[in-house]
Amino acid sequence: MDKVIEDKELGRLVVHVNARARRLIFRTKNNEIVISVPPHTSTKEVAAAIEQLRPKLIVAKNKLVRTRIDLSYNLDTPFFKLSLIHGNRDRFLAHSELGQMKIICPSNADFQDDKLQTWLRKVIEEALRRNAKIILPPRLYMLAQKYGFTYESVKINSSKGRWGSCSAKRGINLSCFLVLLPQHLIDYVLLHELCHTREMNHGEKFWSILNSVTSGRAHELREELRKYKTDI
């Protein structure tokens, strides 16, 4: 279970144990700092790392400004398009179908309201999840067939920290936010997790397998993926 640390300067820090982590990794997500740690990492070690990196973490925290969703906000990606438009109704109306979503907004909508922002993100996330359930499993199956991988199951979640994961029992989990990526990066993530059905670590053998199914571009695609985030 994740542990939460409340810091006067840094705010909320979430300590997440990652069985595959070899060192402490800090990242900002939403309005908090997530610390991925190897198993058996002590509280003292986490505290020491926070203090050592505090100046850099403060800078990163200050840069963490979430985009506000209003009438100027839109998503225009190959698999999902979103627009907010002004309407004559006195309440919000969300309409979604495969690949697109429109949210009709009342004229008195207060986009500065944090509760409204939370609701809008929830509605959009639900639409992304529905789209992901239709788009991602068939693509994963096709790639597995093409390259000779086998897996036990696939589930779609709303992870905002990881694009995907693969369990020791070869169960693959995929973030619904994947549908906001270009096709070649979706395929990279799917292939990445399929490669974990053979190699659970990120050693040389893993990267060799991943390179073999990405035309030798595994590291290049990994760097390109880092420009995107698992959130809206």
Structural write-up:
With 232 residues, the protein is an alpha/beta fold. 37% of the residues lie in helices and 24% in strands. It is built from 5 helices and 11 strands; from the N terminus they run ββββαββββαβββααα. Strands 1-2-4-3 form a 4-stranded mixed β-sheet, covered by helices on one side. A 4-stranded mixed β-sheet has the order 5-6-8-7, covered by helices on one side. Strands 9-11-10 form a 3-stranded mixed β-sheet, with helices on one face. Strand 10 (164-166) and strand 11 (171-175) form a beta hairpin. Helix 2 (114-147) crosses helix 3. It starts with a strand and ends in a 7-residue tail after the last helix. The mean pLDDT is 91.
Share in β-strands = 15-25%
How much helicity do the residues have?
A: 25-40%
Element-level helix/strand string: EEEEHEEEEHEEEHHH
| Alpha-carbon Rg, integer | 20 Å
Task: Give the total of beta strands.
Answer: 11
Number of helices: 5
Q: How far is it from the N-terminal to the C-terminal residue, by CA?
A: 25 Å
Topology:
Layout: E1 3-7, E2 11-17, E3 25-29, E4 32-37, H1 43-63, E5 74-76, E6 81-86, E7 93-97, E8 100-105, H2 114-147, E9 153-157, E10 164-166, E11 171-175, H3 183-195, H4 204-212, H5 218-225
Parallel strand pairs: 2-4, 6-8, 9-11
Antiparallel strand pairs: 1-2, 3-4, 5-6, 7-8, 10-11
Brief synopsis:
With 232 residues, the protein is an alpha/beta fold.
Features:
four-stranded mixed sheet; 232 residues; 24% strand; alpha/beta
